Amino acid sequence: MPPRLRLSAHSALRHSGRYESKGPFRVATTAASISQPSIASFSQIRTAATASVAVSPTPYYPPTQPPSHRRPEYRKSQLHRQYASLLRTMPLILFFQHNNLKSVEWVNIRRELTKALRKVDEEHAAKGRTDLPPLADIVKIQTIQTNIFDAALRVVDYFHPKTTAPVNDDPSSSPILSRDDPRLTHDLSHTAYQAVLDKRGKHDLAMLLMGPIAIVSFPLVSPEHVKAALSILAPSPPQFPAPTRRANPGYYELGTQAGLRKLMLLGARVEGRVFDDEGTKWIGGLEGGMAGLRAQLVYLLQSVGASLTGTLEGAGKSLYLTMESRRIVLEEEQNGGKKEQ
């Protein structure tokens, strides 16, 4: 017995047989109907392609990512921007030379540095001082790439554009800027690169930025925190004594001492000025910190004012005494040498 066909399959076969004779005619008609639009669309595409080759589109740069002389996706460019931001936001930076410290030694040094700075913050809180925020968690020690740091330092200190023209995102209002447009004045621009190209090796810190360098950055100028940092990283008694073994036994661990022996203080950058190691120790040795420095400044100004007032008053007093003595002499001469009783 032959197999039965399902209703759906049977209907499909019947419909296919019905339109089998009309298939070629319909296909030919369809091909003829679409031949003209296809040829027209192909010619339009070809014309558009020729026009696009003849007139190249103007490059578009978004305002949040202007063109730069250095490729922004490279790690060197990111380090350049990071170092420039650090130099602008950190008014006090200590420079140390390090000699192949291990990761364990860096961990121990950072731990002891944070512990010493936190102790200073606790002393300020106990005294009720509110002029300085806690700095223990903000002060960082890190290694740097000296060549990139030197380039960022030259841009920050020597490149001061008079006018900064922002990139406009509206192409109809102003033309799209190229990579070498002089109106671009950001840190990675061609203008900044050309402005500091002849300053290479002329900065005061250029002699220090040689070899492996580590920096300690402070967000505020605080002599107390500088003293605490120097007592840990570069102790020199009696001004910067190291903590005692009983007070801080972790400081005398083998890994910590091995790392500290590989550090050497070079200098500091304070408010844009460069100090050597002795100048850095002078900053850390200010009694009373910034408050003590302000008190000394007020006392100096008061003493200068008092001495100036005394000098001005002394001239007037001297003139008064001279005139008074002369008046007495003239009166004696008029009275015949007799003094008035």
TrEMBL record:
InterPro entries: Ribosomal_uL10-like_sf, Ribosomal_uL10_bac_type. SUPFAM superfamilies: Ribosomal protein L10-like. Transmembrane segments: none annotated. Coiled coil: none annotated. Residues 56-75 are annotated as: Disordered. Belongs to the universal ribosomal protein uL10 family. This is Ribosomal protein YmL11, mitochondrial. It comes from Emydomyces testavorans.
